[in-house]
Amino acid sequence: MANFLLDNKDLQYYLDHELLKKIVTLKENNFKDAENDESAPVNYDDALEGYNKVMEIIGEICANTLAPNAEGVDAEGPQVVDDHVVYASGTQENHDMMKQAGLYGLSLPREYGGMNMPLAHFSMASELIGRADAGFSNIYGLQDCAETINEFASEEQKQEYLPRVSKGETCAMDLTEPDAGSDLQAVQLKAHYDEEKGTWILNGVKRFITNGDADISLVLARSEEGTHDGRGLSLFVYDRKHMAVKVRRIEHKFGIIGSPTCELVFTDAPAELVGSRKLGLIRYVMGLMNAARLGIGAQSVGIAEVSYREGLQYAKERKQFGKAIIEFPAVYELLSNMKARICASRAMLYETANNVDMYKTYFHVSKKRKLTPEERAEMKYHTKIADAYTPLLKMMSSEYANSVAYDSLQIHGGSGFMMDYPIQRHVRDARITNIYEGTTQLQVVAAIKGIAAGTYEEKMKEYEGIKCLAMNKPLLERLTNMRKQYEEMVSYVTELDNANEFLDFHARRLAEMAGHIIFAHLMLRRSNTSKVEGDSEEYHTLTNIYLNDGEAKNNGYASYIKSVNVADLDMFRDIKLDK
Ligand SMILES: Cc1cc2nc3c(=O)[nH]c(=O)nc-3n(C[C@H](O)[C@H](O)[C@H](O)COP(=O)(O)OP(=O)(O)OC[C@H]3O[C@@H](n4cnc5c(N)ncnc54)[C@H](O)[C@@H]3O)c2cc1C
User: pTM higher than 0.85, yes or no?
Assistant: First the structure.
């Protein structure tokens, strides 16, 4: 039987390695939980065996239900009926099947009905689902709202909402409004506390809300009257049972059509405050969006994977000039670069997931016992890396999903432009990945911190210290030179007086330069350390292919940075098309 996990040997490595072992041991309380709970694993191997079974079931459902349903979902789409969302029939079938198979609540603690699995596994589920049906991966992936509830809500709220998520109730994240997109500080939806009713009440409009009619919604609202910035915003949980939110419309979209994007009207909607007032945007939504960005990273890898597979199959079958088109250098070059980018994004996806998991797990452990000074330092370190890696992952993997889908359509020639082939759907689905959950430009804004603080350089140097196989030494040398070039460019851009605008101008180039180096290091590390058969050689080659492209791009960026100086910014600022 077809299976999206088992047909992809690239995934194996991420299901078992050193950092994961540490995460699982921490999550499982050194496997002491098994003494009182027979569903808890007795050791690391037992845990992995259990996780792998779950992943195999997801891989099977993806290949045999979700993927075959995707075309019908794309054609049918969801509808608004009596102010509420009705999913496309295929989406409903997908959701029911995942629910019946008990596949919600993967990473939630067992005490709330979850499976206590690592974030890497939840991310892999999102990747597999993204490959099968990108629209559905939003509906499934939004359960990461429950992670925010688990982190910041009261015990009473956790008892109420988390078991429901584990049973398959759906979630939504209601942040965006017509005048508050990238700039969430401008959110206006009003929250006031009604003394008589003893509850918070929400009034206003939200727009572009994925799965807006979900059972459980996290809503960002202005709780502090007279405020105008992020410090006046709080986070609320709204329960659909109140029936006080109407879906005014579902957007007519270019892609991810199965995922309902809703305009919502809140009318005296009762809601509960999550955590403390005024920390809604500053603390909780930042955490929520970071989790969602990891999810879009996974979705992007999934879309890139399916696009690559479509392109590969077509290139093997299509014959021109008497041979399969895959024989032409112009085609196999495209395909090999597509594959290298996917493997690079995947390496970054699971590295980021593990860093996020490390600090989150320590955060939860710290609620139960005092952390040792070493553990506290480790938590701080992984928080820093997760914050630096998340925007880099989101930016690069979503741009790669677009480029891989685009190139795959190109390989299909004229057929790719026809609705008969699925690649047009993947191109459409990919297009949103670098827009929502913060556009690529906003990921760059987030990455500037990692650039200016030297976090990326620190990691590059750390990776340079990993024991290197003889065949990989020339690649490591190139990466070391690329790091030196990156350092030189960062200094050049940041060491000027009034450098802020100059840094913003070149930030995307610097972020991509860092991305090429870090992604390549992760691939090289896999080549150097993997115990999976054949990985060392394959990843040596993939790193080489990825590096050729990344090195050329970095050289181009370095040349551009040197050629556009501060005085030139006037030229860019002043040029107007209507002049
Ligand atoms: C299909 C879909 C699903 C969505 N789902 C959700 C959801 O579930 N929940 C939710 O809350 N929101 C959701 N959104 C909203 C989404 O997150 C926003 O659309 C996105 O953050 C961009 O905001 P905007 O559309 O208002 O664009 P704008 O913020 O107006 O941006 C327009 C352009 O300006 C650029 N720009 C803006 N500010 C800066 C800056 N400081 N520096 C550089 N460039 C900048 C942007 O990069 C972009 O190119 C969804 C959107 C879509 C299309």
Answer: yes
